[in-house]
Write a structure and sequence with these properties.
The protein is 45% helix and 18% strand. By secondary structure, it is α/β, with parallel strands linked by helices. The strands form three sheets. Strands 6-4-3-2-1-12-9-8 form an eight-stranded parallel β-sheet.
Length: 277
């Protein structure tokens, strides 16, 4: 990627007519935004013909597509059916986005389920490596990204998602959710702290990783246990200008998806402030 693209998480509320992906993409173009993260959070219906149609519309409009895999994923489950289902959710999301000519998919990898993170990590790594190998054999040309998670019961700390990328490589990269990061640790909300994150990414994965970022951000309500709920940016403690200034200074490229409840409003707000800097 040669720039930072600002994407809505799903179809904008202000979409005219039927709330379809096609009409949503047209509305995104009208607003001057850069694309959409397609939300497969309730499940993936494999329809390659429709996927190619979405991809063609996005291409004609000059928009970028990403996708969010279903929520029902747990790569640490000890139930074979749930693990198989998790594989299918991730791979089917990647298959659909690949048919669209999209950029990357994100997913919530696992839960600790009362176990120590050090015990969970090797199992998640082994299973994600198998998924990465299948995607490679199928020649899927999208990044597969475990997301940094906001609850302390969830697998997906900053160090875990970076370590997975470093050790598996190939088509695996992290999705850095800065709202989740803030909620998980109760910090990472100043320019200096944002910069520390980008420095850690650069040190662990190389400077080129900053040119292929997939970022989530929003306001967030949290407790000492981590994330409670997403908030509109202006109703939160998120230091928006410091964050955007850091993105600009580090010349971050890739996609930024604003997961605020105010889907298009806050995404447009972020882009306008960013471009004014």
């Amino acid at each position: 990627m040669d720039k930072l693209c600002f994407l809505t998480p799903g179809i904008p509320y202000s979409t005219k007519g039927k709330k379809s992906i096609e009409n949503g993409l047209k509305r995104i173009k009208e607003m001057g935004l850069d694309g959409m993260e397609i939300e497969y959070v309730r499940g993936v219906h494999l329809d390659y013909v429709r996927a190619k149609e979405y991809g063609q519309i996005a291409k004609e409009l000059g928009l970028t597509l990403t996708a969010h895999a279903p929520y029902y994923i747990n790569l640490y489950s000890n139930e074979k059916e749930k693990v198989t289902s998790s594989y299918n959710h991730i791979l089917n999301t990647a298959r659909m986005l690949d048919a669209m000519g999209g950029y990357s998919i994100v997913f919530h990898a696992a839960y600790y389920m009362g176990n120590k993170p050090v015990e969970v990590y090797p199992i998640v790594k082994e299973r994600l490596k198998e998924i990465a190998d299948i995607a490679k054999k199928e020649a899927l040309k999208v990044w597969i990204r475990p997301e940094l998670m906001g609850k302390k019961t969830q697998f997906g700390s900053l160090s875990e998602v970076l370590k997975l990328t470093k050790e598996i490589g190939c088509n695996i990269m992290p999705c850095i959710d800065f709202a989740h990061l803030h909620a998980r640790y109760g910090k990472h909300n100043t320019y200096e702290e944002f910069a520390e994150v980008f420095e850690e990414i650069k040190n662990e994965l190389g400077e080129e990783a900053l040119e292929d970022m997939h970022i989530h951000v929003s306001g967030i309500k949290y407790s000492d246990k981590g994330e409670i709920s997403h908030l509109n940016i202006r109703k939160s403690d998120f230091k928006i200008r410091e964050f955007l200034k850091c993105l600009k200074d580090y010349n971050i490229c890739g996609v930024l998806v604003c997961e605020s409840p105010n889907i298009e409003g806050d995404t447009l707000l972020l882009k306008l402030i960013y471009e004014s800097m």
